[in-house]
Amino acid sequence: MLKRFLSYYKPHKTLFALDMLASLVVALIGVVYPMVTRTMLNDLIPNQNYRMIVIAGLGLLLLYAVRMMLNFFIQYQGHVMGVRMQAQMRSDLFNHLQKLPFSFYDKHETGKIMSRLTNDLFEVVELAHHGPENLIICGISVIISFVYLSTINIYLSLIIFACVPLLVAVSLFTRRRMQSAFQERRVSTAAINASVESSISGIRVTKAFTNAKKEAEKFEVGNEQFQDASKKAYKAMGQFHSATTFVTDVFNVVVLIAGGLFLYNGKITFADYSAFIVSINLFLGPVNTLIRFVEQYQNGVAGFERFVEIMDVEPEPDGANATDVARLRGEIEFTDLSYGYETDREVLRNISLKIEEGKTFALVGPSGGGKTTLCHLIPHFYDVRSGSLRIDGIEIHDITLASLRRNIGIVQQDIYLFNASIRDNILYGRLDATEEEVIEAAKRANIHDYIMSLDEGYDTVIGERGVRLSGGQKQRLCIARVFLKNPPILILDEATSALDNATEILIQQALDELCRGRTTLVVAHRLSTIKNADEIAVVSEGRIVERGDHNALIEQNGIYASLYRQQFREAN
User: Fold this and answer.
1) Terminus-to-terminus CA distance in the chain, angstroms?
2) How confident is the model at residue 239, as a pLDDT?
3) If I label 201, which of 26, 89, 326, 463 is the partner at 20 to 30 A Cα–Cα?
4) How far is CA 79 from each of CA 83, 119, 129, 130, rounded to the nearest angstrom?
């Protein structure tokens, strides 16, 4: 893990080197003050060398001016380096998320993923920036200060140094509790983010059902968990800081007693003892900083572990023999195919069917029967477990994911539109399309006239998830997107089930135009929309129980006929 962390320094090695050099100089300048103090007490003041006292003071002031500029460089450029590293990590994580399979998002909430991209990486970058600086400045300061203190009085220095293992032991003991406590707090923070994201996304449903109180109760559950986790974390942190502070206070007592005895017995001069007292902070200060750095280290490591946890999730793999295909014809064949989201429960069982090029094949049946799952296997959103799925006679594992999905258009009931302009949402179908092609796609989807009635036309921003559009307008915008993509294979998954009858007729006209000349797989509950399909299959409990065209299935007088008669009575 350390190697992976250090790799993010590589693009910024020049800036990192300058930052570390500046930190080294700052550490060295910090040693000058006690050295000057000792010289003044032992030499310049007793000998009344006022000229050198002033020169030494001015020289020290000049060095402090240099240190001020170096500290500015460290704080500014060091943080800039950290931000760049954070941006690279965030880009790597975001790009990796784009490659993960649907199964990953089935198990992870959006808010928790967002927490990894924001909160966790902020802690990582703080460690990336301050960690090396603290180690270099404090490490060098400890070494130099110990050497300098030894030149004043080696025995007194060894007494102080002998107390360091006690400080380290106390720190290690209290650090373990703090590490687990802060990890727990990170998990609770992610849970809060997930709860907030879910509530805000569903705010219209909440308001419609006046369930704000219920959402508040759900939020408070996560909020209470965060409070409990934070209490544990801060309790552990309090134990850590109070214990280490007590040990450093013991240091001062030891120096006071031992130094007093040495001074009483003539082992050290009063000037050297005064210089030692002044200089002891040169040693204890960096030691304390290194000890307190443990907290930042724990936060950073916990954040990086959560970052790595997602980065180590295997992306969607192309098959070992997968090749890029151009435009497919659209023949689809399932052979003895079975699939389950979980290994112990199959959603589809022994499906065998063939959809010929350019034909319309409809799937009907009870909810949860496996219709949508069957559709999701065609663009390889989920991997086939057993049996085979071929397109144009090519095993689906032998087609690259990118080229396969370029050949498939999907229109679903639950449409996702981006908070961007109408033009940008249509262009999502093919980013390099011309303005004329965008307009033509909108016309074929029966949405162009509505767009032109808007003040800003195609530049109109439609809001998050297309909130400023009606259900039918969203659907037609999605259809325009697929028209622009112009795929040979089309999947319509409950594309009109949420629309009123008048809007459905308008959408159906656009869909009929869209389906022309394409292999189309339709999932529908309204059987009136698929009466003219070339073939219809009834899917129940993961199996195909009936197949045929509309007339043949009516004659069979089975499940399809029963569903059709029921809907016909409801319509009447």
Assistant:
1) 67
2) 76
3) 89
4) 6, 16, 6, 9
Encode pLDDT of 215-247 as tens digits: 777 777 777 877 777 787 777 778 777 777 777
Strand, helix or coil at 395? strand
Residue 420: left if φ>0, alpha if ψ -120 to 50, beta else—which one? Answer: beta
Beta pairing class for 386-391 and 394-395: antiparallel
Element (H, E) at 500: none
Closest CA to 355 of 324, 373, 330: 330
**Other Cβ atoms within 10 Å of 492 Cβ, number:** 26
Separation of alpha carbons 55 and 177, rounded Å: 51
| pLDDT, tens digit (0-9, with 9 covering 90-100), for 476-499 | 888 888 888 889 999 988 766 555
Contact 276, 152 (CB under 8 A): yes
Beta strands 360-364; 535-540: pairing state? parallel
17: tokens are 């080197």
Q: Which two tokens stand for residue 179?
A: 């590490």
pLDDT value at 50 more than 90: no
What is the residue-wise DSSP string for 308-330? HHHHTSPPPPPPTT-B---S---
36 in helix, strand or coil? helix
Question: What is the Cα 204 distance to its own chain's centre?
Answer: 26
Taking each helix axis from N to C end, the angle separating 270-311 and 164-201, rounded to the nearest 10 degrees, works out to: 40
Query: Which residues touch 101 (CB under 8 Å, ≥6 apart)?
Result: 315, 316, 381, 382, 383
Which residues touch 220 (CB under 8 Å, ≥6 apart)?
A: none
> Which ranges in 312-447 belong to alpha helices (H)?
371-377, 401-406, 422-427, 435-444
Q: By the 8 A CB rule, do 338 and 351 touch?
A: yes
* Sheet strand arrangement including 386-391: 348-355, 332-339, 386-391, 394-395
